[in-house]
Amino acid sequence: MGCASVGSMAETAQPLADLTEISTQVQAAVVLDREGSVLAATLDDERAGRLAASALELFRAGDERSEQELVQLDATLPDGSVFVVRDGDRLIAATTTPEPTVGLVFYDLKSALRGFGEEQKPKRAPAKPASTRKKKDASA
Amino acid sequence: MRPRRAFAVVAAAAGSAAGAVLLRRRAARGKARVELYFADGSLVRLAQGAAESERLLLHARELLAAARS
Fold first, then answer.
1. In this model, does residue B42 exceed pLDDT 80?
2. Other C-beta atoms within 10 Å of A86: how many?
3. In CA terms, which of A45, A70, A73, B63 is 20 to 30 Å from B41?
4. Closest residue of B to A30, CA-based?
5. What are phi and psi of A8, to 5 degrees?
């Protein structure tokens, strides 16, 4: 079994909150990196860690099947479906209700992952304000 | 009489076709499967029962259980 680490807290990032609000089919979602560290989740830390570990194992097992790089997968089970999408070094894994609209779920997951990436980008340092320091008086 | 017979034949054919579609859908619904999408646009579909799909489906079941436990 793969190992997933959960940081101090698996926050529910805004894109994930939006995802579960927009898509009624998505029940749970986790964003993780390629080492299995949870970056954000809609679940508590413990479940998020287990979900991330299983998602990573699933994705790696699927990736081994071809020389081509795996970009996304879905697994359909009688009691629900599982989706994993990769974008760069990040993955998003989600579970859904049975018989979801596959194309729509993939679209929503990709949007959420992209949104998460944008949220994580280091914000540009604000331009240095013009110095307000008073020049020392020559007389001082 | 002829039109009535022709109608009965058409109705029977349409009914059996609809029944076949429904049966097929119901059979497909119960089956587990995995679909893998690769960077070159290729798709690999693995149905339940294939030896190579079992490992993937096992992880998928674990994932679903982890989310729901």
1. yes
2. 21
3. B63
4. B67
5. -55, -35
Q: What is the pLDDT of residues A92-103, one digit of tens each?
A: 999 999 999 999
Which of helix, strand or coil describes residue B47? strand
> CATH number, domain at A108?
3.30.450.30
Do the domain assignments include residue A43? yes
Closest by CA to A94, choosing from A23, A45, A37, A35, is A23
- CA-based nearest residue to A117, from A98, A94, A91: A91
Residue A10: what residue type? A
Q: How many CA atoms lie within 13 A of B6 on its CB side?
A: 3
Question: Tokens 């109705």 map to which residue?
Answer: B11
Are the Cβ atoms of B59 and A50 closer than 8 angstroms? no
A118 backbone dihedrals φ, ψ, rounded to 5°: -70, -35
Note whether residue A18 is domain-resident. Answer: yes
Measured between beta carbons, which residues in chain A are less than 8 angstroms from residue B57?
A: 75, 77
